[in-house]
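Many introductory courses stop at the sequence. We go one step further.
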Amino acid sequence: MDIFYSPDILDKNALSEEESQHCVKVLRHQPGDEIQVIDGRGTLFDCRIISPHPKHVEVEITDRHEHFGCHPYHLTMAVAPTKNIDRYEWFVEKAVEVGVDRIVPLLGRYSERKIVKRDRLEKIVIAAAKQSMKAQLPIIDEITPVERFIESVDGKLFIAHCQRGEKAYLYDAVQPRQDTTIMIGPEGDFSEEEVSFAISHGATPVSLGDSRLRTETAAVVATTMVSIKNNGEKA
């Protein structure tokens, strides 16, 4: 069944113009067709099309499913944008599919990309959520300097970096049902000062394994480790 996104579905019983056009012009839905709609806040609605107008599809809600596709943990991925933005967008897409609650683009000392288009990332989030059948959308922050972000963190903070020193293996360090924040640096890694600053504010240095990973790969691996650790610990 086709899934659409409408944050105001309860108030308007209708799809947005963009979603309506896709519903009618591309998928060619007709009156009486059944579709599903996510509100981005965790609820999926079963709906029946009443009026398939290409700019304003009106629907009747027939059922609702709370916490649809949600996961039993809270994960923030703070990841420096890559020079090639396509790689960062790939990470965002895959992180949504696996399970993430907040994505924070980080601005570090060695960052080569200092600007990201938040609206573009939000569109990728919506598409990935619909594809992976998740009714809750993660928050996308504005790009944030590393130190400022570290100072704002509540809960358990991990920093993955390539410098020498004692590190825990992320999978072993993560605790199920815990509010978890993981920092991944740019292609040039975090600076020594940034790592020291994070540790002084309670961050745990972690390793993702023996291989040296690209930023976007490391971010997806970390997201997946948290998901597997939590799903493997279900009661």
